[in-house]
Every structure is written in structure tokens, then in C-alpha cells.
Write a structure and sequence with these properties.
The protein starts with a helix and ends in a 16-residue tail after the last helix. It is built from nine helices and 13 strands. It has two domains: 214 residues, 2-Layer Sandwich (D-amino Acid Aminotransferase, Chain A, domain 1); 85 residues, 2-Layer Sandwich (Dna Ligase, domain 1). It has a seven-stranded antiparallel beta sheet. A six-stranded antiparallel beta sheet has the order 1-6-2-3-4-5. It is globular, with a radius of gyration of 19 Å. It is an alpha+beta fold.
Length: 313
């Protein structure tokens, strides 16, 4: 599927602009998720105005690790991950240390809209650092891997895990050099992996084979992603989920305009899957049934999606 079909046939037809604000603002996403009992990373605080930057030290003085991000940022821009302290300096996920003044400068840039959609004035969010599930730790370097799931009318259609690399500076951003690992919707196992659109079999930094990847709590991950459709009021969206060592799957953010590189990571197209998902959505209002039918329809054991038919009684 290409960009025109995505923009006109999906985003334009199924996502009303009035509902974009929940996906486009991470604070709004977090608030909506908490209202529905959907787990999200803990919010320590926010910085909304430039005059508040000088008192940021009071918010972080007792924190050894945290994440600072723009509420309206996109593509991983503006995210600062602090994993520890070294004296009066803060240690980034890359091992590089920065000063408190550098953190204040970063927050000021967030407020000025340097990283936000359309360059609008923004809000800086101070969040808890995700403790990566040990099973996934060696698949992502200097950063937290996340799982992107495309959901169409409440039906999970395609999934991939985005794994950070040294080239991507610890960001799970495919355009910056992270690895996209296609995930079998049916069983949560890796089906392919790509970096810069080139198929690879091992993580470029750790040498760990992606064929070993089996996402824990897969059923729970699918339920969380599918449940975001009603929460956001969007017919076509991308749900980004992280797996915390203690709390399990948590919603990181939503995307009302998810990219198409997920097709490359899965070595499969979205077009045929979306046609089947439409049949599933038309056949039932039950979220559990939508997930069950999707897992059967989009499992890697069912080859040749172009010839896939779905029998719904």
C-alpha cells in the first residue's frame, strides 16, 4: 500500500480531525488511557512555561533516572533519556554525561516548539524510565524497544518491534537507523527484520539473532492496542507499546498517521490485510472476537495473503 491510498482511503476516511488531539498530544493520550484503566508510564510532572525551567531541579533532584519528552513531538525527536547520575552530571542512555544546564536548555527548546508538530509551543513531560523486559534487553541498544501495532476499526492488522541501535542513538526510530522487526500477529514471533530497508538476521551491535524473538504477553499486547481504537475515536491508528519488567505492557503513545515501513519489516503488504480486517470489523462488535479472527487470518502460517479468504459464520 502506498502513501496516497493511506492518506485518502484510510486516514482521510476513518480518522476525523476532531479526534486527532488525543493521538497528537502525549499528555492527552495519557489522560485518556488512565481514564480507561490502560497502563502508561508514570508521569512525574510537566513544565509548561519558560519561567518554570529554573525550578526544574526540584522535580528531578531525587530522581536517578527519568525521561523528558515533548508532549507534541513526533518521530522520537526531543526525547532525552537519563539512566543515572555521575556526581553532579546526568548519564544518558548512550553513556554520555550532561549537565543540569544542558537539561534546562533542552527543556527550553521543547517549550519553544523545536521538536513539536508544526513548531507550536509545547509542554515538556517528565516521565518514569521504562525498565526493559530482560527478554528484550539485548535486542535494543541504548534504548527501549517498542511495539508498533496498526489497528483498523479495532482489528490488529500488522505489528513490528522497533529496536534501537548505536546508529539511531538509542532511539527506536527506523529513519535514524533502528531495526524494524516484523511480528507475526498470530503468535507474536519475529518473521523478518530490516535496517534501512535491508533485510538482516542479527542485531548490528549485539549480534543477537532476531529469529529468537518471541514477544512476551502477546495476547495482552494485542488487547491493549485494539482497545485504543475506541479510546481515541480513530478508525486507523498506530499504537506504540512498551514492555516494562515490572508492569508488563504499557501504552507509550498513539499515532493517527502511522507510517508504512511496517510493511517492509513484515515483508508483506497492508492492502490485502486491511480488506480482510474490514470483513472482520463488519462481522462483529466484540473486541475479543476481532482479535481472535485477526490472529487466525494474519498468522505467518497462513501464507499468500493475496489469496486469503475469511469464512465468517
Amino acid at each position: 500500500m502506498g502513501m496516497n491510498r493511506r492518506n485518502i482511503g484510510l486516514i482521510g476516511s476513518y480518522n476525523q480531525r476532531i479526534n486527532y488531539h488525543i493521538a497528537d498530544n502525549k499528555l492527552a493520550t495519557k489522560s485518556a488511557a488512565l481514564d480507561r484503566g490502560i497502563p502508561v508510564p508514570e508521569l512525574y510532572g510537566t513544565v509548561e512555561h519558560q519561567f518554570q525551567v529554573s525550578s526544574l531541579d526540584k522535580q528531578i533532584q531525587d530522581l536517578d533516572s527519568f525521561v523528558i519528552k515533548p508532549a507534541q513531538g513526533s518521530g522520537g525527536k526531543g526525547i532525552l533519556v537519563i539512566v543515572g547520575r555521575n556526581g553532579d552530571r546526568f548519564v544518558k542512555s548512550s553513556g554520555v554525561t550532561i549537565s543540569y544546564d544542558e537539561i534546562k536548555r533542552h527543556v527550553s527548546n521543547i517549550l519553544a516548539g523545536l521538536y513539536s508538530l508544526g513548531g507550536r509551543n509545547d509542554v515538556a513531560m517528565l516521565e518514569a524510565l521504562i525498565e526493559v523486559d530482560p527478554i528484550l534487553k539485548e535486542l535494543s541498544v541504548e534504548g527501549v524497544p517498542d511495539i508498533r501495532i496498526i489497528v483498523f476499526r479495532g482489528v490488529p492488522v500488522m505489528a513490528m518491534m522497533r529496536c534501537a541501535t548505536r546508529v539511531s542513538d538509542g532511539k527506536a526510530n527506523l529513519h535514524q537507523g533502528a531495526v524494524g522487526v516484523g511480528i507475526d500477529i498470530g503468535i507474536g514471533q519475529a518473521v523478518a527484520a530490516v535496517q534501512h530497508s535491508t533485510v538482516i538476521s542479527k542485531h548490528p551491535d549485539t549480534g543477537i539473532g532476531f529469529y529468537q524473538l518471541e514477544v512476551p504477553f502477546w495476547s495482552q499486547v494485542l488487547r491493549l492496542a485494539a482497545g485504543c481504537a475506541n479510546m481515541a475515536g480513530l478508525g486507523y491508528l498506530g499504537a506504540d507499546i512498551v514492555l516494562d519488567r515490572v508492569r508488563g505492557p504499557m501504552l507509550l503513545e498513539l499515532n493517527a498517521r502511522p507510517g508504512l515501513t511496517i510493511q517492509v519489516a513484515n515483508q508483506a503488504g497492508l492492502r490485502h490485510r486491511l480488506a480482510v480486517a474490514e470483513e472482520i470489523a463488519n462481522s462483529t462488535e466484540s473486541q475479543e472476537e476481532k482479535i481472535s479472527l485477526a490472529r487466525k487470518a494474519f498468522s505467518a502460517s497462513d501464507r499468500a495473503l493475496g489469496q486469503l479468504t475469511l469464512n465468517i459464520s
